[in-house]
Amino acid sequence: MFSNVGFIEKCRWRLKVYEHKYQQNRHTTGETSIVETEYGKVEGVKRLTIYDVPYYSFEGIPYAQPPVGELRFRAPQRPIPWEGVRDCKSTKEMAVQIHVITGAMEGFEDCLYLNVYTNNTQPDKPRPVMIWIHGGGLCTGEATREWYGPDYFMQKDIVLVTIQYRLGVLGFLSLSAPECNVPGNAALKDQVLAIKWVKNNCASFGGNPDCITVFGESAGASAAHCMMLTEQTQGLFHRVILMSGTALPLWETEGQKYRAFSLAKLAGYKGVDNDKSVLEFLRKCKAKDLMALEGRTLTPEDRARNVSTPFVYCVEPYATPECVIPKPIREMMKTAWGNAIPLLVGHTSDEGLIFTQGAKALASAAQRQKCYSLKPFVPYEVADNEESEKFEQKLRTVHVSGKTPTIEEYKNIIAYSCLHFPLYRLVLSRLTHAAGAPLYLYRFDFDSEELPHPYRILRMGRGLKGVAHGDELSYIFSNLFSQRLPKESLEYKTINR
């Protein structure tokens, strides 16, 4: 996914990781704090932000049992209470994934942990709570200070919670047979359980359980959108922020069933397409082997639609007590409890920049094959409809200036299909079905020449200008590249808006 940087750049990143760890150790004090949760006591540590603001860091708090063995692919279970004090002074390992810097398969199945950051565990007045759901295409991402540090939040009276959840096939495998009890969306159920944990425990960290905001970016925004649609979370939070993503784009696919059998065959399965047998086989496989193979289940049709993640959200094939998506997202949006709460949605001004490499591949393939079809970008609901030809022609009229789409035009078409069109549909749905609830729109358009943006560099290198997908994260969270900025700088002012 992030393979567009050279060897020297990757070496620079590895050095940056070590430098960041060193700086974080320097900003860690010897002072600790113990807080009581519903499952037991946790011990955190006082740290300093890059602006020397003190705060307490409680990292690696379990919100569920390890999803291993019989719990692999299944809904998460509440953690088992512990005796004594649990050491929560450092983050846990990320979920199994291909590391965006090293390119190696890393992480652990035992990944259901969250981090709590607060500058006062016993304030005079409870603080607003913000729950962050990271992005990464549902197949990468982690809740660590390397990517999502709390430094800027800790300058305010806010309790920040960052959560980890299962990724890829481990988080989204779906089987149709009810006896398997694997209907899919386990990762979304991880998030539901994490939000319940925050609701029940945030007061112990100085947070206000009646003032909770869930927010996310890209795939994290898609997940946050699901959280405000499912009945599982009703009343657990009070505001939502969706940054460059909704639950409407390519996530909700129809082809989840065949992927399980396809993956099993790739891993060496010799049996028939029987859900129970496939599940038994997949449970015996190493987690990293499954994650390494899952990309090979993508079909040519998937790739034509710019689908890069094979295991994603789905409508669950049968009801369970933990069911998150019982019917299509567009239907859930009409009657969701979240229609009654405030929503902030938006995007960056140059979202399509992130698709530059993919657009180059599409353009070159089209030129080689003399195939300029835009059908893959027609919305799913009409893709097989007799009107699809007309929709394709309208797309061509709006987005293509000549006979062949240019790289710039392909890039914009992908952004339209994946981001802008779903966002537009979300706004229309809110105006129709949630007319009484506040709806706020934003566009982020500040392009700094001084502030490096990690995801942009990993996807595109350092040469392109513009405000790309994910750039705003550098003004919300501290990360590997963050440093103390002059307070008169535009970057500092943007961070503190």
From TrEMBL:
The keyword Ribonucleoprotein does not apply. Residues 32-493 form the Carboxylesterase type B domain. It holds the Pfam family COesterase. Keywords: Disulfide bond, Glycoprotein, Hydrolase, Serine esterase. It is an enzyme of class 3 (hydrolase). It comes from the Eukaryota. The keyword Transit peptide does not apply. Transmembrane segments: none annotated. Its EC number is 3.1.1.-. GO terms for molecular function: carboxylic ester hydrolase activity. InterPro entries: AB_hydrolase_fold, CarbesteraseB, Carboxylesterase_B_AS. Belongs to the type-B carboxylesterase/lipase family. This is Carboxylic ester hydrolase. It comes from Bactrocera latifrons. The lineage of its organism: Eukaryota, Metazoa, Ecdysozoa, Arthropoda, Hexapoda.
